[in-house]
Every structure is written in C-alpha cells, then in structure tokens.
Amino acid sequence: METYQTDIEFAADTGTVCGMGTFKIRSSVARAEPTTTGESRGYERDTFADLVSVQLGGLTLSRMLATRIVPKSEIAEAEAAAAKAWNDECGHADITLYAAE
C-alpha cells in the first residue's frame, strides 16, 4: 500500500472545508478481457483510496473525527477523487492501460 496526499474540499454544515487529505492507496493491475477476435486489449487498473486523515491548518483529524463533521458521502467522493488523481499522476508507469470506448 502507498500513501498519497492531495488537496480536498468537503461540503459541511458550516460551508466548504478545505484541507490536505492523506489517503492509503490500494491498486491492482490485471489483463483486460481480450477482443472478440482474441487480441489483447492491454491492462486494466483498479484503484481505491481510503481516507486516513485530514489536515485543516494546524489541526489534523483522523478519519473517525472527520466523519463526525463531514457527511460520509463527501468522504466517499474525496476518496474517489484521490484514487483518480493518484492514477493520473502515478498509476500508469510501465503499463499500457485499456481505455473502454
């Protein structure tokens, strides 16, 4: 597992909360299903990000504390965005990924 940090925004009851999120990244690569003619389509990557903590200025909140002030749906969106950002920045090294048409 790898740790990844990125800027995040949450919609909270008091307005938008901006901070630095730390995520654990889980990623795996597998061969994509072949075409109907049996040709290879390359590889597919599945990536998941789990929020570990959020730093708001000098205050660091664990995931558990963050869920008390931010809706879980906002945390899920931040995790999906972090997984996508990690893929865009780090996830394509040395492999050819299949892009569904």
Outline the structure in words.
By secondary structure, this protein is α+β, with helices and mostly antiparallel strands. It has 2 helices and 4 strands. It has helices spanning 63-69, 72-90, and strands spanning 2-12, 15-31, 43-56, 59-62. A 4-stranded antiparallel β-sheet has the order 1-2-3-4. It starts with a strand and ends in an 11-residue tail after the last helix. Residues 96-101 have low confidence and may be disordered.
Short description:
With 101 residues, the protein is an alpha+beta fold. The chain has two helices and four strands; from the N terminus they run ββββαα.
Please outline the major beta sheet.
4 strands, antiparallel
Q: Compute the number of helices.
A: 2
Q: Specify the structural class.
A: alpha+beta
- Global mean pLDDT: 84
Distance N to C terminus: 30 Å
| Portion in helices | 25-40%
Strand order of the largest sheet: 1-2-3-4
